[in-house]
Amino acid sequence: MLPAPAPIVAERIWALQLSGSAVKFLQYLISRSDFRGTLPVRQKDLAAEYGVTPQAVSGLLAPLCELNIVLRPRSEERNGNSYRLHPLAAKYETPEAMEAAFRATLARIQAGDLPNLKLPAYQQTPPTPTGRPKLQVAPAGASRTRQKALTMPVGAFRA
């Protein structure tokens, strides 16, 4: 069975003030993490795996930590700059495990034992395209002007 990714971050990631490299690094962290958000490697090991310096990892983690998507362990729990994903941003073994973890996480947030995610609230509904999308199709070697002029509706490709 495939793991169940938490939809909360994925559904709101378009609204976050994050660089593309930070979003890509978050996807790497989610894929690298154990179920429930534990990252089994330290920062220097993440840097080696990701192919960047430890300082670059710090720069990529900083905005994720600001939003509480990635949590730093308390100073007494630290072991070489290890991190974990917020339970609302982690992946789970099954949808049922995710639902149980979300219930427990919300109780911990309400009790003050865990910080909440700092995701922006919806200000308006995300934009949706109007009408039918148009595809630009041009033969190989056509000029840019000709490419722009060749616009075909999606239904034109149906047999």
Task: Kindly describe this structure.
With 159 residues, the protein is of the alpha+beta class. Helix content is 40%, strand content 13%. The protein is built from six helices and seven strands. The strands form three sheets. It has a three-stranded antiparallel β-sheet with strand order 2-4-3. A two-stranded antiparallel sheet has the order 1-5. Helix 2 (20-32) crosses helix 4 (54-66) and helix 3 packs across helix 4 (54-66). The longest helix has 17 residues, at 95-111.
Write the layout of secondary structure elements.
Elements: E1 4-5, H1 7-12, H2 20-32, E2 38-42, H3 43-50, H4 54-66, E3 70-71, E4 82-85, E5 91-92, H5 95-111, E6 134-136, H6 144-149, E7 151-153
Antiparallel strand pairs: 1-5, 2-4, 3-4, 6-7
Helix pairs in contact: 2-4, 3-4
Which features characterize this protein?
two-stranded antiparallel ribbon; 40% helix; alpha+beta; single chain; 159 residues; disordered C terminus; 6 helices
Helical coverage, percent range: 25-40%
Structure classification: alpha+beta
List the secondary-structure elements in sequence, H or E: EHHEHHEEEHEHE
Strand order within the widest beta sheet: 2-4-3
- Inertia-based shape: globular
Low-confidence stretches: 145-159
What is the averaged pLDDT score? Answer: 78
What Rg is obtained from the alpha carbons, in whole angstroms?
21 Å
The major β-sheet equals: 3 strands, antiparallel
> Total strand count, please?
7
List the total number of helices. 6
Report the portion of residues in β strands.
5-15%
N-to-C CA distance? 36 Å
